[in-house]
Amino acid sequence: MTEQAPLLRLENITRNFGAIEALRGVSFDIARGEVVALLGDNGAGKSTLVKIISGGLEATSGRMLFDGEEKKFNSPAEAKAAGIETVYQDLSLCTNVDVVANFFMGREIVKRYFGVPVLQEGAMYAAVEKALANAGTRIPSLRTNVEHLSGGQRQAIELNRFVHWGGKLVLLDEPFAALGVEQTRRGLDMIKRVARQGIGVVIITHIMAQAFQVADRMVVIRQGKVAGDVARDQTTPDEVIRMITGEATIGRAGEARAQA
Amino acid sequence: MISPRQRALVEFVLDNLVWFILAIVLVIFSATIPNFFQTGIFVNIIEQSTFVGVMAIGLAIVVIAGHMDLSVESVAGLTAMITGILFCARGIGMGITLTPEWLVLPVSLIIALLAGSVIGGINGWLVVRLRMNAFIVTLASYIYVRGMVDAISGGRSAQDLAPALRFIGIQTLAGIPLIAWIAVLCFAIFTFIMARTPFGRHVTMIGGNPVAAFRAGIKVDRLVLIAFILAGAIAGLAGWLLAIRTSGATANLGIGMLFRAFAAVVIGGVSLKGGIGQLPGVYAGVLLLSSIQTAMNVMALPVHYTQMILGGMVLAAVLLDTVKLQIRQKLA
C-alpha cells in the first residue's frame, strides 16, 4: 500500500451532452482497499461518472489519474486492460454457457493445432476451480449453465473473475438490486473480502443501509458535483440523505463546500 | 429441487431430443410402412438431406448468434445459377473450360463461396453497421437475390455441367453419394468450430448476452458480421452442390428449401432466442424432415399433403422450442 498516490484520483471531471452539463467538475480519490459508496438521486450524474471511469464515455474536461498516472480510456476494453471494470447487474454474464466459459469469457485458454485455436477446457476448469476455492466461493458444478445459479452465486462469479484477472478497481452498479436478505449479506461480506486484497471498490446504491454496512466512505453526487465526501464513521444516514437532496453539503476538509 | 444428476439427465435428453425423435420415427416407419426398411431408402434420406443440411449449418450459426438469415435459399439459387452459367455447355451456359480440366473444380467452388460471402457480407453489414433488423434485411435479400437469379438467367436454364464437376455428383463412397459425405463433413467441421474454438464459444455467448460479451472485450460486431458471411458462404456451397447434383441450374432451383432448413434448425434444438443449439441436432432435424418426406413419397401421398404436414411440423417445432425453454426454466 503506497500512500503517495491514490488508486484513482478524479480531478475536475466534466461532461456535457450538448447544452446539458451532466458533470460539472467532480473531484475525489479512491484508495487501495477502500470501499466507496457513490450516492445520489436519479440523474445526479452517477452513471455518467461511472461510465467515464470505466471507459464507456469520455470526459469533456478534467484529469483522471489511475495508479499515479494520467489515464484516458477510450473503451471499456482499455479500462479493463488497466484493471478497472464495472459489474452491472446481469450485464456481465452469459447465462447460456457454463461457469468456466463465463470465467474465461473473451480470454479463453487456447492451444493452436495447425494454426486453429482450440479451447483447452481441462486447463480452464482447473483454473476456475482453484480461483473459486481460494476465494471461498462454493458453486455446485462449474459445468452448470449460469442461468441455473442464484443471483448471489452469479455475483460471486463476477467478482472472483474480476480479482482473478488482476482487477484493481471494481465499480458495482446496484449490486444487490435483485438479491434476497441472506444473499445480500454474503455479497457484502464478499465485497469486504475483495477490498481487503487491496482492491478499490465503488458501489452505487440507493439503499442507505447497505452503503453504511459496507462502505468506508460516502461520496454524494448532486447536480453533477460532489455534494459530500465523508468517512462512514463521521456521518449518519440522515445526513447523507440531506446531502443527496441538497439540504446539506459537507466535504472532506471543506473542499466540496468551497466548490459548492 | 431436483438433484444435479437428474438435471443433467433431463438436460441431456432436451439437448438431444431430436435424435431420439428421429430414432423413434424411423423405427415406426420401418415397422408400419411397407418397403420402407431397405438400404436404398436410407441412402436416399441421407442424400436428400445434403442441400438443406448444408444450408441449415449457416442458418443455425446465425440463429445461435441471435440473428436470422432468410436469404440462404436464394443465395444457394444464385451460386447454383452462377456455376451453371459459367461451366455448363448447353442452355444459357457459357461452357468455360479450363486446362487442366480438373481446375474447374476449385475455381467454381471458390466463385460460389465468394458470391455467397458477398451476399452474406451485405446482410451482415446492414445488420451490424446500420443496426437494421436481421429478419427484414435477409427477407429483402431473400427476394432480391432470387431476382438476381432471374435477371442473370432470363428465366432460362443451364444444362450439361462440366464433366469434372459432374463427377462429384455421381461418385459414391461406402454406398453413400459423395455429396452427402460433403454435407456430413461440413457438419463435422462446423460442429467442431462451434463447440471447441473461441469463435464458436463467442458466437454462442453473443447469442446469449451480447452486452456481456461486448463488455468482456469480445468483438461482437465483427463476429456477427463473420457469422453472416459464413452463412452466405455455406449457402454458396449448398448452391454449388445443387448445380452439381442437377448438372446445371434453373431459375427456380432451391425454392422451398429455406423453409425446410428453418424447420430443421428449430427441430434440431436451436432456440430462436439465440445462444442455444448444437449443429449435430440440426443435422438430425434435417434427417428427420427427409425421413418424413421419404415416407410420404413411399406411401405415395399427394404433394399438398406433404406441404401441410411439413407446415404442421414447423409449428410443432416452434412449440417444442417454447416447451423446452419452459422446462429449462423450471429446472433453474
Notes on the protein architecture:
By secondary structure, chain A is α/β, with parallel strands linked by helices. Chain A is 33% helix and 27% strand. Chain A has helices spanning 46-53, 76-82, 99-103, 121-134, 151-164, 181-196, 208-214, 237-245, 255-259, and strands at residues 8-17, 20-30, 35-39, 61-66, 69-70, 84-88, 110-113, 116-119, 169-173, 200-204, 217-222, 225-231. In chain A, the strands form three sheets. A six-stranded mixed sheet of chain A has the order 6-9-10-3-11-12, sandwiched between helices. In chain A, strands 2-1-4-5 form a four-stranded antiparallel sheet, covered by helices on one side. In chain A, a hairpin with a 2-residue loop joins strand 7 and strand 8 (116-119). In chain A, helix 5 (151-164) packs parallel to helix 6. Chain A is globular. Chain A starts with 7 loop residues before the first strand and ends with a helix. Chain B is mostly helical. Helices cover 74% and strands 4% of the residues of chain B. The mean pLDDT of chain B is 89. Chains A and B meet through helix 2 and strand 8 of A and helix 9 and helix 10 of B.
Summary, kept brief:
Chain A is α/β, with parallel strands linked by helices and 260 residues long.
